[in-house]
Amino acid sequence: MTDSNVSVERLSASGSSRLEASGLLADLGAVIPLVAAPMAGGPSTPALVLAAAEAGGLGLLAGGYKTPDQLAQQITEVRAGVSSFGVNLFGVNLFAPNPVPIDKDVFVEYAKSLRELAATYNLSLDEVGALEDDDEWAAKIDMLVADPAPVVSFTFGLPSAEVVRRLRKVGSLVFQTVTNPNEAQQAAALGVDGLVVQSDKAGGHSGTLTPATPVEQVPLADLLDRVRSSVQLPIWAAGGISTPTGVRDALAHGAEAAVVGSVLLRSPESGASKPYKAALADTNRTETVVTTAFSGRPARALRNAFVDRFHTVAPNGYPAIHHLTSPIRKAAAAANDPESINIWAGTGYRDATEEPAANILRRLAESC
Questions:
Q1: In the sheet where 204-205 sits, what is the strand order?
Q2: Dihedral sign, CA of 224, 203, 177, 100?
Q3: Superfamily assignment of 4-99+134-270+351-364 in CATH?
Q4: Does the predicted TM-score (pTM) go above 0.70?
């Protein structure tokens, strides 16, 4: 495992003002130890991935909720863009199947509770059934084997050892999102190249492999130490990192890189909706909550009327609940209504600014 402390100390001795990439990230061509997180559902765009490359870091395209063709088009766009910087520096994240099937009666009851809200957007949930899909998993893997990306990462579930082998055979580095040492050991047994270690402070969905069980609330530094004691793999740290100090702390505890998401959400390159960006800047919103109300999987979001109304009655059940609430969330975004959208946000959301994403990442890479 690369010892990130060595690179930090070397920087301090040389008087440099920038943290330098190391390990696998440096091998990929990165010059700063920053990764722009994959934020599915709109926020992560090719422009955001290109901004990360421009800053000298790595950006991950969010493959979730896209068709294979849509994802392939974005990969083509990003590959052409990063080549103008003289690098092949990007990655793709996929949702590995780990369904949480929902009881039909439970689904119907939750749909009933949503009807009044849906009607305000001229939507009907009367004939909606529980849609259980795998986000076109096999087709996306085949596409990434035929058209390899430098990095492929997984979240929600574990790929098979065969999928890991196929991707590595075509030259992709494979990373797995984990939230505890046990998950790290499971991922290591599959032959992955590295881990994204995500704390409970992360915005959006938790990468936990056991979504029906609450994620343990462990400071990121402690979680990194625990995982490093459990497996010998390169680590990228994620969850609540939004300042240069946070980046340095992650590196000091053995991470090669810091993965940041919420701090980028208000940037021009972010595809977050107008009401989403405005809500992040709203000083009256002061609390994030881990809830299953929007998708049936635990995810950290800013409190709004939807969370207040449905958090306590929301069942586990992914992807069925995601598909059920998706039309409401889309209609609310189109109506510029922040009270019925998922405002995914990590605990560092207050540090998000409207600056260009490359500037934000460069600032996060400042060593002092």
A1: 204-205, 299-302, 288-291
A2: positive
A3: Aldolase class I (3.20.20.70)
A4: yes
